[in-house]
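Protocol step 4 of 5: obtain the predicted structure for the target chain.
Materials: sequence only (see below). No template structures provided, no constraints applied. The aim of this step is simply to have a reference model before the mutagenesis design in step 5. Sequence pasted as it appears in the construct record:
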Amino acid sequence: MDAFQGSLFAAPAGRYARVALNTPVRREFAYHIPEHAEPVEAGCRVKVSFGRRPIIGVVVAIDDAPPKGVPVERIKDIEACLDATPLLNKSLLRLSRAIADDAYCSWGQALAAMLPAALRSDRSRRTIVTVELVHALSEKEFETLEMKFPKQAKAVAYLRQAAGPMEVREFCNRTGLSKSPLTTLHKKEWVKFGNKTAVIDPFAGRELVRDTPPQLTEAQQNCVAAINKSIDAKHHQDFLMYGITGSGKTEVYLHALDRCLAKGRGGIVLVPEISLTPQTVARFRARSGDVAVLHSGLTDAERHDQWLAIREGKLRVVIGARSALFAPVPNLGIIIVDEEHESTYKQESTPRYQAREVARERARLESAVCVLGSATPSLESWQAAIDSPDMQLLYLCDRVAGGSLPPVKLVDMRTEKAEGGQWLVMSSQLKFGLKKILEKKEQAILFLNQRGFSPAWYCRPCGKTISCETCDVALTYHRWRKKALCHYCLKEESMPQCCPTCGHKVEMIGVGTERVEDSVQRAFPGARILRMDRDTMLRRESYEQALKDFGDGKYDILLGTQMVAKGLDFPKVTLVGVLNADTALHQPDFRSSERCFNLIAQVAGRAGRSSLGGEVIVQTWMPDHPALLTASKHDYDKFSVVELQERKDFGYPPFGDVLRISFESQHQQRAIAMANEAYEALKAVVPGGFGQTTEYLGPAPPPIERLRGKYRRQLLLKTNRQQLLLLRPTLYKLAEQQGIVVDPL
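Step 4 output (structure tokens):
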């Protein structure tokens, strides 16, 4: 995977730089280095002219001579070098090239993903503009505003929920509105703008409270000893730590990181969700001191400052979501990927990489240790640990606090009866369980991966749903906004009382977190309910404050989407309820069973983490599904054996490669034509055409055929590594020339 040979990274002695630009073009561009731009080295950012516009690129190599066949007079000068020393070292440059090759994008696109937004442009640190609602509108005022100026009303409704100042840029991104409604509201003196400067330390003003490491169990000691052996030897080694929920994986991480720091090396800790960051950061700060935090919840200026502090060696421990993997930690010694099975580690925009695999590659390039941890390892990692000498398997089979995993009850919703013809939210068993925990003053977590009040509005006589005009999806009703919202394009509409097709009355179907909150509150009026989803976690501090409040006992029930399903540790939680366990099983995805199993197992792990014990209630319409049955018994071994055999029989990962090739256009026929042309081009490359070694599905419409006004087609290729190497040049060409998306699944 090495992209460089020889003296490519030596001090620049020549006058020409190869520059990777953030464009789809899969090649580097030669520029002359004038004296005023020196010094220029590989890994530095430079400002150059590309066509008629200035652009920021990254130097990937220095040459003593111009490229062959290119007239010297046609080679442009570098306008300016933006860095006195390289921003990216050898390992990160090599890593970016490997990502570009595996993700079917250009080197410049991969490099852009590694840098904070502020460093992808020639911007200095900026002042952050905030906005805050200062006028308490009456209901009559709001109704009048909604009728005359719906965008202003939308802005007011959102700021009401924020309950404090929020960044204007964040507001625009979340609402889909421009700044214009805010400007008008400011003239009315209903909102006020403010300014603040980003700070390097997001923990400024917070006391650093150290803790004392607990006594390790024998299993934890064995894991730490194995990891420390590789750290001491400065030897690259991958570990898969399979530990049941509550077995003390985090404590193993902390001990391994301490050993790295003692050896003068740094570390990166990846978590799958921003919501997990506060708890993880608190534990690592208490043990390791000051840490850096990198995730999408920070402003561009804050990410920039954190990134530079890491690069300068001021902060040697980095905690964050997927993008934290690219933090420029000097002398990197360990990369920890917590909950490594999570789908959120897969980047869904260019470059489309799997952070788990990129972490292993970066660890190899840096002679560092990579630790993957999970109670439900991905089947790819599990198979690698079983078969490959490159991955060592570590076990944590018992809970640190003692006791066993909580019992899981599968409730067959087909036998439950709704009251008064209403859509059934809670089963009788879940209601009884909530009643018990409220009486005993304990806590519960309810999980439903669907926000809003109702996922769809349905006309029973004609069978139509109220759908988005630009996306082929049903609109979700959000009661707090009194609007129906498209969760893809963020378009809002007032919900009609009657079907626009036949005129009959429409009805709400399905359940979202808002509806669950309403139902639970009606059933238990005295219950203190905390809802965590994108609609309530509006401010960057919301996650941390919400989890702190729940941990302090200010709420009885924590209700939320996927952000409450993993990694959280609350001793007083004795009941976990999963309201619709079947959602993942209905997805057209070969990983649907695995994701369903992981969800149940992970959510179940939030209960019974103390001497109080606990139970898990899973509501399902498919109680006999193998994934649900094995998850209810906490039997990962049985699930993995059956699922891996099925994957092997059909050639799915980890026993084969699957690529999704996507096409989109504002014109349906153009999307179809692009897909057909690509199919024929790929078929011509495969010896003997598609058949035994390379299979295809499509071209066909994806589950959502039209998204944000564009029509889509997709082609699925299932092949092996040897055939994939034959297909790659054609895929690279299609991605560059036609703008198609190639996504390794």
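Step 4 remarks: Confidence is low (pLDDT under 50) at residues 1-13. The radius of gyration is 27 Å.
Proceed to step 5.
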